[in-house]
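Page 42, continued from yesterday. The earlier attempt failed because a stray header line got pasted into the input along with the sequence. Redoing it now with the clean sequence only.
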Amino acid sequence: MDASWEDFGWERLGHGVGRRRLPVWDATVLLVAGADGVLLCDTGSSLREAAEVRAQAEAMLGRRVTHIALSHPHFDHVLGTAAFPGAQVYGAAGTAALLRAGAEELRADAVAQGLPERDAAESAEALVAPAHEVTGESVLDLGGGREVLLVNLGAAHSGHDLAVLVPGSPPVVFCGDLVEESGEPQAGPDAVPARWPAALDRLLELGGEEARYVPGHGAVVDAAFVRAQRDDLARRFDVPDPA
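This time it went through. Structure tokens are written below.
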């Protein structure tokens, strides 16, 4: 099934691993397929967008998404989650409470950014909060020897950032918006800039020099790009180097 990924507009990053850049906000979703399970990282900006992702995933892999990892609780990464009924949903600790209390705020943000009101309202009303929260690290076994590591990086780009490491040759690291390639990293009201460079240091520890780093927006990058962005953020926010 791997050979057909490109036909659906997906970029294959390894056996059973691929990602797609979604339209409008250029947010990335990542699929990781094991023998028994399929992990989707982030779910897009609406149920409508996610339904297309679900249809493509099922056509490419011949089975449904069983697990979802949400990199952070911003509308363009979480509002599609309800389009995957039955999937086990993971997020950094604190994400569930934030989403349960913040559906209206996500709807308003999505509309302000250009999502049609009807799509935003429908998606926010159906919003799914993670039932599984990661406090440190958690291993997901997708079968056939494929294990992925979910890592809670704390507050940096958002108040609740989660990274995903897919071991392999090379490893793949799903960064969420901790890393952005198609524009300058965005620091909204929930960002904690003082902790952002350290979060990127942790990403580099996870993936190493040979990894492919998948940003929340933009093209796949290498360790040198992540390191340069880490240094730019430290200068931008006047974060001193660790002692």
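Notes: The mean pLDDT is 96.
Reminder to self: strip header lines before submitting.
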